[in-house]
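Chapter summary example: a protein plus FE2/S2 (inorganic) cluster.
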Amino acid sequence: MNPASDTGLEASASSAPPATPPETLLTWPAEGLARIPFQVYNDPAIADAEQQRLFRGDIWNLICLEVEIPQPGDYRTNVIGDTPVVAIRGNDGLVRVFVNRCAHRGSMLCLDKSGNRKDFTCIYHNWVYDLEGSLQSIAFRRGIRGQGGLPEDFDPSQHGLKQLRMDIIGALVFASFSEKVPPVREWLGERMAWNVDRVVGRPVRIIGGYTQVMHNNWKLYIENVKDAYHAGLLHLFFTRFGLNRLSMDGAVEVSERGGHHLSWSKMHNDHTEGTEYSDGKLRSMKDFDLEDKRLLQSWVEHEDGITHMIQTIFPNVIIQQIQNSLAVRLLVPRGTDECELQWWIIGYADDTEAQMQTRILQSNLVGPAGLVSLEDGVIGSIVQRTTLQDPNRAGVVEMGGRTVESQKGRVSETGVRGFWQEWRQKMGV
Ligand code: FES
Ligand SMILES: [Fe+2]
């Protein structure tokens, strides 16, 4: 059977007429990117528009790590915004990504998070698709004893699964509804792709993972990740034990359109770092200590000497290196006031046993109850509940200026402004 025509790409969703015309969706404050209107966190019309203009628009969406589906038939489900999708490795060894939906009446095809299958057999009426998405068989297609069944001219080749564009960089499998977005490496740009290669550019091993539900708009968490300013202030564990302080050598870098970012620092001693924290001008939880200091022991992960590197890939992917704790995170929106953060905690296939044990120990820094990232899981809801009442008021984002550009210091909100620059461009507001 020929490949179904519907396995080809549809026109970019972003070219379809939006449900709410952009001009009526939101009026951005006159101060531009120096202000973030609270409406963006609470308005259901904006959340709806994001599904079409962002997630089904001209971006790449992380689906899974390639190492999760090594064999033909291995699959991994996920969502792009609110659209269920499935990545599967075909018998030809290629990874394909489909909307996880039967072409008959729309039933979800793969109900599990992951597994292995010879084909896609729909549980509802037993239509069967091959791993390339072509419709292979239809239960009772000719009816029974000449009664019922499909019309003679029904063409199965027109009823395959909807296939998305797919691209892989390093360990990461991306998919897109868009025909227009350039390949992932080009879309990331040279500097952003450099760090993807740096962290996941060699064979990885998944140590574990979890999913964390947060009671805030997804964009509050993304802002938090891009907000280099907070990292050495909110996170007392970082400052107390000197893992990441604003006074260290570091930078915030933003991509050309603004939406991707890198925030990095190098751990030094107090002498090279300055005395802002040791003088007690900034809080650093002096009264607390660790009984077991093994958590603070690390090896130099990269020759560049960067000990702390957080990257965002627009709009909702995070790549993390905190000492030797490596992770990939994907943030999935769930309406206006809830989101789901998926974590892949990783090491490398060629790690020694001792290195793996250190990574496992250091993974205590992150996750829902992490010594560092616990605060990030709650700060969004603390903001969300006070933005509800005043959609026309706005947050102030002027640290490091009012524009979007890479900056040497990290006392800066340039990454946050960069996110909103690209969000506004994609959303048409
Ligand atoms: S909905 Fe899948 S076979 Fe009917
Ligand atoms: Fe944080």
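Key point: Residues 1-15 have pLDDT under 50 and may be disordered.
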